[in-house]
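Operator note (shift B, R.M.): manual run for Aminopeptidase N-like N-terminal domain-containing protein requested after the automated queue skipped it. Running by hand, logging everything below so the morning shift can see what happened. Input copied straight from the record, untouched. If output looks odd, do not overwrite the archive copy; leave it for review.
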Amino acid sequence: MDSGFQSDRAQLPRNMIENSMFEEEPDVVDLAKEPRLHPLEPDDVEYEPHSSRLLVRGLGEHDLEDDEEDYESSARLLGMSFMNRSSNHRNNMSGAYNQETSGGPCSLSSARTVLVGAFVVVIILSIAMVVYFLPKCTFTKEGCHKKNTTLTLIYPLASNGQVFPWPKMRLPNAVVPVHYDLTLHPNLTTLNFAGSVQISLLVKEDTNNITLHSSGLKIVKATLTPKVSSQPKDVQILEYLQHQQIAIKVNPMLLKGDTYILNLEYSGNLSDGFSGFYKSCYQDKNKTR
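Run finished. Output pasted below as returned.
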């Protein structure tokens, strides 16, 4: 029985590490008590480690014949431990790499980014198509009107409460002046003036009013006379102070191509500034004129 057991052990490699199922207690090799190859010098201090025992399973006290076998056994043990750690590290790294390549947080975030970008592109294209296919129009309070549709203009009120016939700041082109005859009579004592003007007009479009600029003038008399008949027409004067305009309403309507003479008599005060008909002073022999 003992001889068979010894023969089985003899067939195993001498430095083989057996598994934990082996029932023998591990032999303890105290490396600190082994004889040294090189003795210490007298001045050297020997360092004795507190824990320098190496547990080796399957090795008896008398199995290590020399220092070379002890060194070889320790090197094999350390090498196999390092190889096991290296293989575990490689396995962990390969698992992490497979997780990243197979689809992790990065793939999810990239897919989400692609979806958001596609959604934004679809919205931009939809807006562009809507703007392109909408009919061109002008947006007002009444809504969207087509380009060729005539908009309803809102006319202001004149100073007397009636509707002023022209709503814009610039004068209309239905009637244009051709010639002016102007007369002014300033009064340097009262610092006011009186004046009259005859304006030759050409009608470009059929209309029932003539709009002029006027500021700070009081219209005393107004007549409109056709050049053909020399018969004056009845007129009505309206004033819109905000645009500094007056409108001369006529009845019947003025016809395109006809010519008229508009006669206006008015009065006003000499201006204190440099607009309109203004006064100015100068010195003459220590006297202000």
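Quick read of the result: The chain has three helices and eleven strands. The helical segments are 2-11, 67-103, 105-133.
Leaving this for review. - R.M.
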